[in-house]
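STRUCTURE:
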């Protein structure tokens, strides 16, 4: 099927083999959970040991350093205001406990634990913090806060074979902040680098897991941070569970390829960017590695109805967004690496604003300097158990084969213009200087063709009185497919548009 130049309703195959396909997705999810549970068992055992018998952190107090510095915080009127802070820096004490006992148990207290660099976990080590223990990155450190030992960087080509991963490590509990106290005040902590000196390019996390196997992050709160909350890359057999974000300034859980057999579940709160991102291809400044992502389960993810305190927030109502970014990485020597996304399950999702599956060149480096060539593919991905208390949508502007969206509950009555699924190349204009069209650039890839095969939308229900009723003809009423066309009025009107076509095939 080929769409016309405007939005056209798609004749979607609905309901065929729906139960069997959903059963396949459940089996896939069960298999991912079973493997991750088995491979993470040692890390969970070390965590239990840390909770039960780790020596008191106070034993290492002689290594604590007290210092004074300036931090910027908003005043009662919301204006950024510098203030002098005296605090205790606990990095060396925590690290000493890990190095000596392989575990550290950090109690809650009224004062924060400041860090002046990353806490480094080696294989078999475990950090367990009380839920009220708050960790703050000292201003100007500009690194991650926790990382594993053996970080691997591979921005010039595929990850080298034989890179031995760190194994069986865990981080649990605590409140972690890099002091991004407002949208303007980052307190010198803009990046989540792996180290202050000789860092591995592309690392960008509060909690950084790169080159790990059998790693667990559980029950953490990421508060007002500028880097990705949990940044995972070149890893397998990982569990990220029970993560809450409080006015977090970047992506929440961010996974870069190569990555496989991961479980991400029970994610809550407010981020200013993607809640969960599976970015197999990536802007080169935001990942140390590239490659395919496969066999990942994402479940129990929820936005929030709380309105952000910051009116400038791009997501003022806290609604979560999910991203799947495939592509083909072109390295400096001209070689290419397929960075696809395959065999993933997303289920029990509430109030997702947008599920993003589209090509997006690197605007920071200049879109012609860093882009996927060709665009990537998403294969065999299922979304199920979706609740929308307000409108949300799937934007599909990359190649997709075997996408299933099942068990959807709409808590509102859709208008005639509402589309749950939008398929086709996209166009939007970024205006760094709104009055100077010479500075404007295209955000997406409107000249790229998009093909979607084997798509299913099953079991959509809509609010009716105090309950829910089946939504008739969901495939034709909620799915739209469109080609792009050039905008002859650009730049007087935007976006620029393009020549990309959309195809929806059985």
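SEQUENCE:
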């Amino acid at each position: 099927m080929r769409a016309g130049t405007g939005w056209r309703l798609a004749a979607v195959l609905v309901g065929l083999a729906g139960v069997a396909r959903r059963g396949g997705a459940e089996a896939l999810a069960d298999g991912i959970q079973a493997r991750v549970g088995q491979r993470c068992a040692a890390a969970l055992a070390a965590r239990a040991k840390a909770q039960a018998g780790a020596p008191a952190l106070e034993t290492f107090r002689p290594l604590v350093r007290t210092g004074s510095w300036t931090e910027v915080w908003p005043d009662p009127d919301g204006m950024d205001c510098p203030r002098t802070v005296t605090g205790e820096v606990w990095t060396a004490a925590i690290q000493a406990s890990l190095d000596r006992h392989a575990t550290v148990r950090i109690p809650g207290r009224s004062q924060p634990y400041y860090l002046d660099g990353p806490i480094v976990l080696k294989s078999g080590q475990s950090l367990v913090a009380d839920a009220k223990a708050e960790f703050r990155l000292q201003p100007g450190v500009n690194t991650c806060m926790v990382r594993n030992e053996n970080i691997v960087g591979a921005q010039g080509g595929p990850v080298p074979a034989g890179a031995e991963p760190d194994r069986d490590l865990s981080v649990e509990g605590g409140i972690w902040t890099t002091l991004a106290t407002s949208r303007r005040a980052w307190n010198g902590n803009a990046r989540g680098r792996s180290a202050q000196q000789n860092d591995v390019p592309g690392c960008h996390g509060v909690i950084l897991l790169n080159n790990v196997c059998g790693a667990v992050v559980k029950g953490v709160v990421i508060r007002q941070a500028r880097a990705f909350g949990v940044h995972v890359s070149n890893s397998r057999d990982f569990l990220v569970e029970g993560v809450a974000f409080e006015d977090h300034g970047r992506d929440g859980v961010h996974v870069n390829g190569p990555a496989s057999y991961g479980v991400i579940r029970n994610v809550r709160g407010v981020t200013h960017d993607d809640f969960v991102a599976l970015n197999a291809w990536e802007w080169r400044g935001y990942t140390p590695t590239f490659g395919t992502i496969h066999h990942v389960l994402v479940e129990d993810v929820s936005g929030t109805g709380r309105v952000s305190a910051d009116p400038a927030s791009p997501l003022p109502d806290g609604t979560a967004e999910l991203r799947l970014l495939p592509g083909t990485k072109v390295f400096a020597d001209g070689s290419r690496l397929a960075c696809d996304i395959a065999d993933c399950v997303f289920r029990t999702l509430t109030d997702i604003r947008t599920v993003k599956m589209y090509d997006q060149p690197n605007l920071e480096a200049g879109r012609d300097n860093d882009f996927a060539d060709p665009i990537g593919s998403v294969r065999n991905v299922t979304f199920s158990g979706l609740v929308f208390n307000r409108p949300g949508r799937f934007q599909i502007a990359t190649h997709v084969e075997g996408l299933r969206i099942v068990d959807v509950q709409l808590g509102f009555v859709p208008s005639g213009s509402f589309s749950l699924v939008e398929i086709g190349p996209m166009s939007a204009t970024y205006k760094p200087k709104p009055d100077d069209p010479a500075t404007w650039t295209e955000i997406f890839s409107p000249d790229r063709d998009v093909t979607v095969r084997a798509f299913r939308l099953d079991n959509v229900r809509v609010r009716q009185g105090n309950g829910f009723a089946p939504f008739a003809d969901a495939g034709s009423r909620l799915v739209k497919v469109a080609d792009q066309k050039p905008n002859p009025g650009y730049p007087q009107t935007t976006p620029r548009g393009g020549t990309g076509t959309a195809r929806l095939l059985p």
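REMARK: The radius of gyration is 23 Å.
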